[in-house]
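Query structure, 791 tokens:
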């Protein structure tokens, strides 16, 4: 198709395609850009094309598109974060025209730089010839040309975006010129500086003085969806969990994800699209190593490289810590310089007092340290351990003591903090420490560690491992009079396992309490087990007093897990005599569990089951069922290792399912409790309670399909008495509860049965098989629900 419309009359002769060559004008074709009085590299003033396979950064692009109020934008991040890709995508989607300058080392002076800026802007809207002519000469001509170029920018008719990609490579004079141009940016336009480090502009003053938009590594990290798209473009398909883990390891670094994909495909040996073991790839892999070395490490001074390698032993860094580890001064200044250079150093606070390396970067540095100076690894780690111990940070001390290979010190620290840390909801951390000692010889050598591990295994539902570690502790404890506290802890755990019945359980805990000082981490736990022993012996008052003491002792030393268990046991005891007190104790235990994030602990199951029972008493059936389901997820951890607690939880759950008329669920829990009793036959009163649950299940009426009432045990007990002429007060006297309690239960019965009177409730209950056909007492006249509630 031929365009027959007349050609417009140009306002500027340069638009005819005249390119100046000295004083001579040469006519070139209409497709040639307007002539300039100086030479430029055309490829540097074009928006880079979007490459196939790049991930669309829609959210960030939209943020930049709406950022019209910012005359200056800074996009600063290390290599591989997709800065240029983001900006080119933005250029293709924004309604404003883009002037683009790609800066490199050849832009050594302000003249070459300003020529390219003028050329890029001229492509968008012609620059006055006078401003261009001022840049024709070399030397100091730029100082005269700058005001003219700035004026040309200020008088632009349409908004524009000027991108200076690689601005961190500009000289001081060029940066000064940028500052002058920024002051003349008209409304709706902006100048964007992109680079690996902050340009040498007075950024702090700019932040305080006017609108400034900054986008850094945090904003440039890939989202979960973007990471998936990048991997798919690299022909790597991963499961959701694998994508999440790889995203965490690479910290959303686009180049890191892509390099991991390349490394994985290379390891597979074939182009199958099924990468092998991508999650095992580290920053020391050759793809990452080559990238880090070529882009960063090869450009650093030897002293800085040494600092990077030797501090790679540290998980986090601060100036004083690095000084202590390296035996030098002014490490804080070096860390600040590393951050300013964007050397994959991540600040951990706003005060720039604490830092860490990017995970992959640190892995490479650590590998280089081990290869070049292996003898320094334990030395540097021990210095870090000594520093953290002086700061009163035992967990960090333990971490670096392990790294230094100092087992004696590690065992001492672990045994002193394991109970405290696990009771605070961080049992997984304790398990990771115990992994370092998972050998028989080590357990015999460190019985205090073995007993801590035995307790963890017991409450994680691993009875065989618990026995092995406990036997190792018994084997390793000194026989010459030392290790009395460890022997006492062994007695407590033997008691908790209740292999020899409650009498022996009581004797063991009494012996242990005589040895353990009040401040010992195991003292509150010993009190709980001691109270449980009395509970199994049927001495409920004595058990309750001891459990109250255990709760107070736990509170005094901050043992949330132990206190919650003590309160749960007390709630269980109170349920038989005072429902209100039982619920108060259960609520307090529940608060501790929620605040301490202990809901996945086996010790929390008793309270969770009791909470479900309370929900049933108040007719909150759906919530109760959800609570029961959550609690049952913990039962696999409740084994013969701690048999009394395991049975108690199943009894509570079983009774709840009896209330719900769920015969199958109740029978399943009964069978589990009976199996534990078979393995641990001496559990005191729990044997009779198991038999009682079995009798309740067998006595459950066969109700019609869908006829479950959802009545609690207390309401079922009340139901036959509703058919008498007894008032609520008289019924309460017979059942040893208050009139208000009977009134509340009666209203709940009416609501659950869908009736509005006592007589209708009895009729409905009879149809459901919940009461016998004859009570021996004449039924009361039909009365309204309101009158009944007041009687």
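Result returned for the query:
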């Amino acid at each position: 198709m031929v365009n027959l419309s007349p050609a417009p009359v140009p306002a500027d002769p340069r638009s005819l395609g005249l390119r100046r060559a000295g004083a001579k004008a040469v006519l070139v074709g209409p497709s040639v850009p307007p002539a300039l009085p100086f030479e430029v590299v055309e490829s540097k003033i074009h928006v880079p094309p979007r490459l196939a396979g790049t991930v669309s950064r829609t959210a960030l692009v939209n943020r930049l598109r709406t950022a019209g109020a910012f005359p200056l934008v800074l996009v600063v991040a290390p290599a591989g974060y997709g800065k240029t890709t983001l900006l080119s995508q933005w250029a293709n989607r924004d309604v404003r025209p883009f002037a683009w300058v790609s800066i490199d080392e050849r832009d050594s002076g302000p003249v070459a730089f300003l020529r390219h800026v003028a050329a890029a802007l001229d492509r968008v809207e012609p620059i006055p010839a006078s401003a261009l002519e001022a840049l024709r000469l070399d030397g100091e001509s730029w100082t005269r040309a700058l005001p003219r170029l700035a004026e040309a920018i200020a008088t632009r008719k349409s908004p524009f975006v000027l991108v200076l990609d690689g601005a961190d490579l500009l000289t001081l004079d060029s940066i000064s010129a940028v500052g002058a141009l920024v002051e003349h940016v008209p409304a709706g336009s902006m100048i964007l500086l992109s680079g690996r480090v902050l340009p040498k502009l007075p950024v702090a003053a700019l932040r305080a003085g006017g609108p400034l938009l900054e986008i850094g590594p945090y904003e440039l990290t890939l989202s979960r969806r973007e990471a998936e798209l990048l991997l798919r473009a690299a022909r790597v398909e991963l499961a959701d969990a694998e994508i999440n883990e790889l995203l965490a390891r690479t910290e959303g670094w686009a180049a890191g994800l892509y390099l991991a994909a390349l490394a994985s495909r290379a390891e597979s040996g074939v182009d199958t699209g099924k990468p092998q073991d991508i999650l095992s790839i580290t920053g020391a892999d050759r793809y990452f190593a080559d990238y880090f070395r070529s882009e960063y490490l090869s450009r650093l001074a030897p002293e800085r490289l040494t600092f990077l390698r030797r501090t790679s032993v540290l998980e986090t860094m601060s100036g004083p810590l690095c000084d202590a580890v390296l035996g030098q001064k002014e490490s804080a200044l070096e860390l600040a310089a590393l951050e300013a250079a964007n050397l994959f150093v991540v600040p951990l606070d706003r005060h720039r007092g604490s830092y860490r390396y990017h995970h992959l970067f640190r892995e490479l540095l650590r590998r280089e340290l081990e290869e070049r100076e292996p003898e320094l690894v334990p030395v540097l780690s021990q210095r870090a351990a000594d520093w953290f111990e002086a700061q009163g940070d035992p967990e960090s001390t333990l971490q670096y003591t392990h790294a230094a290979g100092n087992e004696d010190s590690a065992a001492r620290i672990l045994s002193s903090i394991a109970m405290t840390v696990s009771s605070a909801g961080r049992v997984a951390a304790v398990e990771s420490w115990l992994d370092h000692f998972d050998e028989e010889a080590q357990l015999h050598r460190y019985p205090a560690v073995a007993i801590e591990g035995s307790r963890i295994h017991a409450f994680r539902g691993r009875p065989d491992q618990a026995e092995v570690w406990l036997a190792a502790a018994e084997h390793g404890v000194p026989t010459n009079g030392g290790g009395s506290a460890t022997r006492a802890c062994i007695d407590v755990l033997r008691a908790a396992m209740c292999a020899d019945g409650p009498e022996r359980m009581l004797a063991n805990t009494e012996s242990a309490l005589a040895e353990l000082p009040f401040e010992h981490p195991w003292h509150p736990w010993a009190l709980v087990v001691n109270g449980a022993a009395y509970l199994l012996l049927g001495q409920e008052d004595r058990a309750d007093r001891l459990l109250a003491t255990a709760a107070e002792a736990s509170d005094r030393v901050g043992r949330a897990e132990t206190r919650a268990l003590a309160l749960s046991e007390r709630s269980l005891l109170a349920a038989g005599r005072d429902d209100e007190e039982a619920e108060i104790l259960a609520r307090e235990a529940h608060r501790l569990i929620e605040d301490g994030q202990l809901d996945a602990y086996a010790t929390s199951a008793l309270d969770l089951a009791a909470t479900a029972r309370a929900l049933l008493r108040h007719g909150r059936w759906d919530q109760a069922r959800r609570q029961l389901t959550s609690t049952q997820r913990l039962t696999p951890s409740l084994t013969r290792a701690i048999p009394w607690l395991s049975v108690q939880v199943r009894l509570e759950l079983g009774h709840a399912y009896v209330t719900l008329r769920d015969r199958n669920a109740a029978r399943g829990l009964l069978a589990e409790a009976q199996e534990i009793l078979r393995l641990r036959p001496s559990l005191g009163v729990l044997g009779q309670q198991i038999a009682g649950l079995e009798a309740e299940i067998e006595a459950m009426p066969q109700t019609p399909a869908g006829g479950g009432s959802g009545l609690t045990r207390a309401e079922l007990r009340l139901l036959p008495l509703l058919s008498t002429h007894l008032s609520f007060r008289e019924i309460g006297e017979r059942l040893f509860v208050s009139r208000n309690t009977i009134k509340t239960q009666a209203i709940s019965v009416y609501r659950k049965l869908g009736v509005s009177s006592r007589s209708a409730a009895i009729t409905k209950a009879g149809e459901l098989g919940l009461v016998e056909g004859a009570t021996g007492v004449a039924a009361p006249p039909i009365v309204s629900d309101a009158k009944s509630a007041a009687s």
